[in-house]
């Protein structure tokens, strides 16, 4: 199947929540139609990759309806849905551009769920979840993921730890030098059944308050972890921790499917 | 020594190329004096941490000279110079803000040398090395490093590989799926003598040209490495690769010395 399509040029790669299957026609969102028709100048018959996070990835063909609207008729499956690492990232919102950046990079690095968390020293009091979801969707489309991370509604730190699911480990990078190295903590979390579900909690630029660290330390599912001798900015710590997770316990032993030969015009 | 200073408040942490030792007086640069006196409103007798990348880290005291000038009298050593990971990052310059970002984050993550490299698909034709050196110095001051990475003059890819030093491995993240996972490549580079010197080469957004990849593949010191199934942007690939290096083969088993109790007013 793949080998017959080496020379097909792909106009775009888009997420849609619609169910997918051969012969199904899906309707792009207004933004997606604008992007396809105006930005990418897609024409009738052009190829677009679509995915919904459940049914794998599909090749579709553009059917223009008007200057502003089009449909996508699904032709065939390119990849089945495969399991992806189960890694949550809870983070104190940063200055706007740093939060955008964090969401984009965490999506590229394969986080499954993003949770904004307000802590005592968090400078921001508002988070636009819709905006973060849009950034995350675009990053997922571009980086060839088969899913888009869920962007959760913001929580307080108390809500986060009260509702934290049983069986999921919460790793807190620690600048005070109290934690074991992240790599060694992850390696001891891997057994014959694979790795237990994990999440990272990244504090604000000002760090956690002493009372917050005390509360975290009392929780059986919390481990403080070390990211080396340098003091990392919050967004750097988040990305470095996620990269280490994917390398040690995630999916970095897998390769991109880029060598299948699809052309893909990146969105930016 | 350390224990007597738990309550000292540090106004700033500054790099200086001057030789350092007890009783030595050093002169901050014009920018540093402005920062100390105008931004941080340092006064006579205030404490400043200084380091030069050779002699460890020292506590100094501000001696005001005029409204615009001051000297720093060194009191005592806080930390000796310790060896740091020897990791080079050669990178194709990106759009301006992404290059700035890459240099800042690579410094935080402990790279020892930054080398801008022009490749066939590199969109930028100019790099302001002085600007990158300033960004790197500020990041090093903030992240508590004992050194500032060297920012090399830009090279062509041909110059880079022609002059590449003997005994240093060059790792090239590979989106075509041809490389072994970075973690496994690094683990096989570690023997009783520690890890061999390494460098990463990060291509431009457009990727390497086929002829460039062919040339790289012929070099005995080049290894293509995999960073997982997702297609990472150039700056994300660089930071993820460096983080993996530090976790697997670098200094992430070390902890920050933050718990020594020094206050440090971050520069931003």
Relevant terms:
homodimer; 268 residues; alpha/beta; Alpha/beta knot; six-stranded mixed beta sheet; disordered N terminus
The major beta sheet of chain A can be summarized as: 8 strands, parallel
Mean pLDDT of chain A: 90
Query: CATH superfamily of the largest domain in chain A, please?
Result: SPOUT methyltransferase, trefoil knot domain
The general outline of chain A is: elongated
Helix content of chain A: 25-40%
Distance between the termini of chain A: 29 Å
Which secondary-structure class do the elements of chain A indicate? alpha/beta
Give the class-level CATH name of the largest domain in chain A.
Answer: Alpha Beta
**Overall tally of structural domains of chain A:** 2
Number of strands of chain A: 16
- Unreliable runs of chain A: 1-6, 259-268
Looking at the structure, the CATH topology of the largest domain in chain A is Alpha/beta knot
**Helix and strand pattern of chain A:** EEHEEEEHEHEEHEEHEEEHEHE
In CATH terms, what is the architecture of the largest domain in chain A?
Answer: 3-Layer(aba) Sandwich
Q: Largest contact between protein chains?
A: A-B, 47 and 47 residues
Subunit organisation of the chains: homodimer
Radius of gyration of chain A over alpha carbons? 20 Å
Total helical segments of chain A: 7
Strand content of chain A: 25-35%
